[in-house]
Amino acid sequence: xxxxxxxxxxxxxxxxxxxxxxxxxxxxxxxxxxxxxxxxxxxxxxxxxxxxxxxxxxxxxxxxxxxxxxxxxxxxxxxxxxxxxxxxxxxxxxxxxxxxxxxxxxxxxxxxxxxxxxxxxxxxxxxxxxxxxxxxxxxxxxxxxxxxxxxxxxxxxxxxxxxxxxxxxxxxxxxxxxxxxxxxxxxxxxxxxxxxxxxxxxxxxxxxxxxxxxxxxxxxxxxxxxxxxxxxxxxxxxxxxxxxxxxxxxxxxxxxxxxxxxxxxxxxxxxxxxxxxx
Length: 278
Ligand SMILES: [Fe+2]
Ligand SMILES: [Fe+2]
Prior knowledge:
- This is Inositol oxygenase.
- One of its GO terms (cellular component) is cytoplasm.
- The chain is an all-alpha fold and 278 residues long.
- The protein has one domain.
- The protein has eleven helices and two strands.
- It has a two-stranded antiparallel sheet with strand order 1-2.
- Helix 4 crosses helix 10.
- The model is unreliable at 1-17 (pLDDT under 50).
- One fe (ii) ion is lined by residues 116-117, 187, 213-214.
């Protein structure tokens, strides 16, 4: 049994832990996980991502508060996640509380922990899970080996046979910066767009963590350096710092949400408008 990617946050894993995270080989949930990635890697193309961006990027679909969005995640179990099999709303509080313990002075970072997966509400609006959850990767250029399951899952993706999109740089200039790269469509980019659209005042590092937290081939695999610029290199340690809480606070011990809610409502009020457009 092995974990596919070498993960710098392994150093932060709780000791005597008998659970192995991000196990894509023989986790009890592996069949479900692999099916989600096969569909994702077959259908996420440049064309598909552009369509989704124009559909969801307008943020004209719902109006609701952050807490209302969070409660929608009570109905969502992430089918790409080999680690947990409980609703995503608990994961939001677990991540935020992990950050609060280690970074009591950074309330915006704690809020990022709470919010980071809210984009998964897409799955409740009839988007298939392969267009919502899971690791992200750049479209419009060669699919790299650092993408989980990539050896077998891209063969039916039309972009993998495209004369430009199948090349190392594809449609991009060298070191163009990740902000200028089209990522596979999912909850990271959607929530980033929602927070920008609603003019939330979360610092840039926080928005960046949200936008790229699922880009494992980069922040954990060390890949795609040829597309990165100075800003990406500066932001990488923040994304990695976030990642260790996203991953290693996942336990079956569920947080007391009722007790925690007032604290986080204060943070939401500080950084976000009350009613947001989604
Ligand atoms: Fe996520
Ligand atoms: Fe997460």
